Amino acid sequence: MLRLINLELQKLWLNKTSRILIFISFILPFTVLILSSIKINFFGFFTLELGELGIFNFPIIWHITTFFASYFKFFFAIVVVSMIGNEYSNKTLKQNLIDGLSKKEFILSKFYTIVFFSLVATVLIGVATLFIGLYYSSYTEIAIIFRETSYLLAYFVKLVGFFSLCLGFGMLVKRSAFALAFLFILFIVEWLVFWGAYEVFGNTEMAWKVKRFLPLESMYSLIDQPFQRIIMTKYPDKIDLTYDYAVHWYEVATVLGWTALCIFLSYKLLEKRDL
């Protein structure tokens, strides 16, 4: 495994564009550190400091940081599809196979690299969240601090799932731009499925249940939006805002299922393709 990861890291390091995108994908999530220190002065009447509003209290901070950090995954998604596109355009795929790398090892090298970068990103956002929380949170009990670290697991699974999907599209079309375009097409298809389910079942609740099992929606649903929860912490009497924001095992299992399917189909596609 380490040999395969090292092989991919060497390829990425030799590509200037990949180096820049990887750097951006790791750095941008840390904008939450900047966000935590922002002070807004309202014409001298009063100053609003986001860190003092309680949104960086434990345990809600795990929810907030992982939700916003997940939006920066598109930068590394470009790296993932480029890994495949460059293999075909530079003829390195064929050369690797000639040099003794099996097709299975080729796919695994991409997947291991995805897992590696997802793990590094998760550790970094976890450390950043911990430090922000320790600085701003009014709760210092160990049990409260680590109560909702399940969001870190959800964040990791979300990254691995999304990048594996990008890998699958990259293998399918062999071109970075077209692979990213397929993500948009899939987004549209999932909404068409939603409206189809609505026509069949006659209510939006069932339509949403169907949509939440589709690839992009299942990955997005791993970490639900925290906005209602933030309002609930300030206004506990807002019962109408109550919703289920927890990370559930079946949501994780759904994304892992799509991840396994993407990697399996990528391998089968490469196995049958004439290089």
UniProtKB/TrEMBL annotation:
Pfam families: ABC2_membrane_2. Keywords: Membrane, Transmembrane, Transmembrane helix. The chain crosses the membrane at residues 20-40, 60-84, 111-137, 149-170, 177-198, 247-270. One of its GO terms (molecular function) is ABC-type transporter activity. One of its GO terms (cellular component) is plasma membrane. It comes from the Bacteria. PANTHER family: INTEGRAL MEMBRANE PROTEIN-RELATED (PTHR37305), MEMBRANE PROTEIN (PTHR37305:SF1). This is Excinuclease ABC subunit B. It comes from Mangrovimonas yunxiaonensis.
